[in-house]
């Protein structure tokens, strides 16, 4: 339990003040930006301190089992009913939700170049470019994989997503997420997760930003079981950081946007809804530095399944069949003996959307560049290209360190549908499948 009084960042979220964080994953946190703002020993006192309103934000049904039950108590200047009003439909731009069958691209292994940074002014709300959708937003199952391009901070605007939690994976440029729970800064090689229903705005820190965004319609991301690995390694709980409370008491007009049921709605407020002075609970945004992931792998022979690199998982009702696994391919040593070390050739019932944050991915040394993406959909074959195959088949198997690389995968049980933007925006590589063309027949029955 932590109590963090952090008056130094009250109302200064937009002025570059370094945020403070509490460490741990899924803890019952408590934090207050004014001393005594949190009630002691109860959630809903007759009168909350400082004239605040007490409000519960439920991220799970009330009756969810204890291990999956998520809620927080917020002590705020105005209750959220005052952050609501007459909504009008707003332009979704290039943001899409499942089911989205707007483009009928034939099945194929697909790869995209990084989308260039746009010249026009584009906030987060205009800059979400959906690449794929999977499942159904109306049944709380599946996901969408987006690339965001942002050239302008949101000002006098706030947003929340009722359809899913959002995992930001920056690739270029840092973001400041000014949330009602506090302020998170997130840079390339870090991720940040904002749960559904949490109000926030997205600001730029060091110029235009590009990155990936996983919109999770299903169960909240959680740490995967470690099984025989034991109590340590992979993603460790203490490396997850949740912000301390920070609020704005700002009576300036604010547009509130809500994504609900695959549509975007907007309403006008006369004040900022980022007005939570104190909160406690286990439903809150967090960040994580991917470089603190401790990879475990083959120290004898063979290549384990990529699930060994799972950072977070969104479980489904079927054990072991994830709604989404978030998997990374970080710096690591390759030491396996008499082993084809890159990922093997395979077909998979799961559907794999990959991105590259920096460096070179070992199975695709050419054509898969930082900011780009690839899609290996359900039961479509894939594996190393000719160059990677030759190198791995003939190289000396001494210990090799893969350095300066960070690729990731959003892997889902649902087939991923390509959006019209992804199919037609000019970044789709027409020759991707040619990377396997050079894999000639090598079979010779006279040479065992
Ligand atoms: Fe794969």
Structural features:
single chain, 448 residues, mainly beta, Jelly Rolls, six-stranded antiparallel sheet, 28 strands, globular, disordered N terminus, binds fe (ii) ion
Topology readout:
Elements: E1 21-23, E2 29-32, E3 53-58, E4 71-76, E5 88-90, E6 110-112, H1 124-127, E7 128-136, E8 141-150, E9 157-161, E10 165-172, E11 175-179, E12 182-186, E13 190-194, E14 200-204, E15 209-216, E16 240-243, E17 254-260, E18 263-269, E19 276-281, E20 286-289, E21 310-314, E22 324-329, E23 332-334, E24 351-358, E25 373-376, H2 386-394, E26 400-402, E27 406-412, E28 417-418, H3 420-424
Parallel strand pairs: 9-17
Antiparallel strand pairs: 1-16, 2-19, 3-4, 4-19, 5-18, 6-25, 7-8, 7-28, 8-15, 10-13, 10-15, 11-12, 11-14, 13-20, 16-20, 17-18, 21-22, 22-27, 23-26, 24-25, 24-27
The structure holds fe (ii) ion (FE2).
Fe (ii) ion (FE2) binds at residues 346, 348, 352, 376, 382.
As a whole number of angstroms, the C-alpha radius of gyration is 23 Å
Q: Can you count the helices?
A: 3
How can the largest sheet be summarized?
A: 9 strands, antiparallel
How is the CATH topology of the largest domain named? Jelly Rolls
Please identify the top-level CATH class of the largest domain. Answer: Mainly Beta
Q: Compute the number of strand runs.
A: 28
Helix content: under 10%
Span from first to last CA? 64 Å
Mean pLDDT: 94
Strand content: 25-35%
Question: Given the helix and strand composition, which structural class is it?
Answer: mainly beta
What would you give as the CATH superfamily of the largest domain?
A: Jelly Rolls
CATH architecture field of the largest domain: Sandwich
The number of domains is: 2
Overall 3D shape: globular
* Ligands bound to this protein structure: fe (ii) ion
With strands numbered from the N-terminus, the spatial order across the biggest sheet is 1-16-20-13-10-15-8-7-28
